[in-house]
User: Fold this.
Amino acid sequence: MGCGTRSIRSSRGSSNLTVKDDQSRAPGDPEFAELPEDVQISTEEGRKLATLLRDDRPHARKLLEVRNLSTQFNTREGVVHAVDDVSFELDYGETLGIVGESGCGKSVTALSLTRLVPNPPGKIASGEIIFDGVDLLKLTSNEMRLLRGKKIGFIFQDPMTSLNPTLPIGYQIAESARLHMGLSRSAADDRAAELLSKVGIPRAKDRLSDYPHQFSGGMRQRVMIAIALACDPMLLLADEPTTALDVTIQAQILDLIRSLSEEFGTAVILITHDLGIAAGMCNRINVMYAGRIVETGKVDDIFESPQMPYAWGLLDSLPRLDEVKGARLRTIEGLPPDLIEPGPECRFSPRCQYARDVCREQGPELSARAEEGHLARCFGTEPGGWIQ
Amino acid sequence: MANRTQTLEAPAAATTRKSASLWGDAFRRLLKNRLAVLGGIIVGFLLLVAIFGPMITPFDYRAQDLAGLAQFAADRHTTSQPIPPFVTGHFLGTDNLGRDLLSRLMDGARISMTVALVVQVVVIFIGVPVGAAAAWFGGRVDTLLMRFTDIIYAFPDLLFIILLSVALRETFVGRALDGLFVVFFAIGLTAWVGMARLVRGQLLSLKETEFVEAAQAIGVSDFKIITRHLLPNASGPMIVAITLGIPGAILAEATLAFIGIGAQEPRASWGSLVAQGQAYLRSEPHLVIFPALAVAIALISFTFLGDGLRDALDPKLKGKQ
Assistant:
């Protein structure tokens, strides 16, 4: 548990995956003619982005500041508020966990950060996403492309379907490096081999020409990690990276993500429904429920003194080693609410055994708790509340 | 972690395994299909004949062997008539003007193979972009492009081709390639519809896959996602559609030539050879039989090859053959 303090971006310089920018740049690589320099920068934010893409230094106070982000989906039944007024911050090099049940907006939050929410039907309705000082929602879609892969790497849930079956994995790893770093084909292949051995695939150089079907699930997830890290991003979004893998492989993949993110000083947002994983990996945790953050704080604070009945429920539902044999696993009764036009009440109140009338009339806001940076959305645990 | 992987690496380094590509697998499956191999061999033979045949034949397809014709008539004490096959130096005989039938068939093979090629090129260059754009952009673009496709589909093909060739007959375009260019182009203009629909259908399902999202997540542009990530995944059905579209194109050309559109004298399309031979159907049936046989063989071998390719490239059959 707990990962102590992370070395911040200063460690990036010592990375042995540095790229020799001048020698290996291919000016006329025909297949990747549209090098980042060629993309038209048309907005003020785009110009800021251009300076940010030139180096690996921090340019702002925080790596990521999300303010009042709301993402909605238009469906036949009505507007689904999948992410509703979510705000959080992320330091350089920090690992943040986003935990919650299925359907509570974790993945949509991650997709919103890279503006990959499928549109239509989805759209980011309001808010600000400030990445390293640049408001991503003000960028054009072309400018956004410069950022994706270069500064933000994305690991998807299912490695079996996230790799293109018709392309050798070497190409798929090198694609990002060629796109964003302007590497020639051979330089990008070298880098792909380097990355592949970095993620623990033996005989990396020989396997560049292999196709995804020749790899096992765990191996493919390693390839996905290599792709996500190809350009040495500042932020790694891992959307349930181990859900599709079996338990023994899970630990290896998480180890790998942790060791590589420490080595490169990459900040990580780890999305998971498994609190055990979050506890082992993260500095801080956001607990999400029904499209909102219901509790946020340092990992130790959340585990030692959770301040929201939903978080208790999640913690309680973890199977424990000192369990009485034959005891039933504890669950949270009921289902997350419908996110079409939710009312003002506390969204967890229908499932909460501590709920009182005040919870059903007016929802609580995130409010501070005893520990620094620990916020929860619950009347009952507020100072003077009825839950102790 | 790093230490752990290094210990794993050592024993594995000794073995090397050849990378089995998807195309390699498909090709092996194709080779197991006897009919497809036969079709492929005949197609290859037809292509060779089309390219080299007219170069090595002793008779030009236009040249009239009037002396041979007179000699043959004198020997048989008849009036001038087509020389039948297998009796003189003309292996498949001649027509009534003394032109060598085998040479004319070879020139016909040139026309038919060119049709096969040009039409499919037109189909690819119109059908693929239309289908891909409709699928990728969806919404209004999709509706517009697909309704346009429907209109082309609903329009009678032959009528369109005939109208186009008649309208352009006296122009520069109409005279290009002995009048064949217009025919090729017109057939292509009516044949791309199927390809557009196929590509659209394939891409609609492919664009929902996660690897497209993954490609977007590393900043690949729309154009490159379509060309590098989507179309290669649809290439199997596209190759099959192209191969199976070729017989249709050859047949369309032959049909048009039969009714006198397209190749003009003295060029000899298989279709026009049949048309010319018609007059001698009773007395000299070889003038019809050989060109008709050529058409039939070409159609069947392309169809066999296409069917074989469909089985070989179908991912659902993988490992079952």
Notes: Residues 197 and 276 of chain B are 38 Å apart (CA to CA). The mean pLDDT of chain B is 82. Chain B touches chain A at residues 1-2, 4-5, 8-9, 12-13, 16, 19-22, 209-211, 213-221, 228-229, 232-233, 235 (CB under 8 Å). Chain B is about 70% helix and 0% strand.
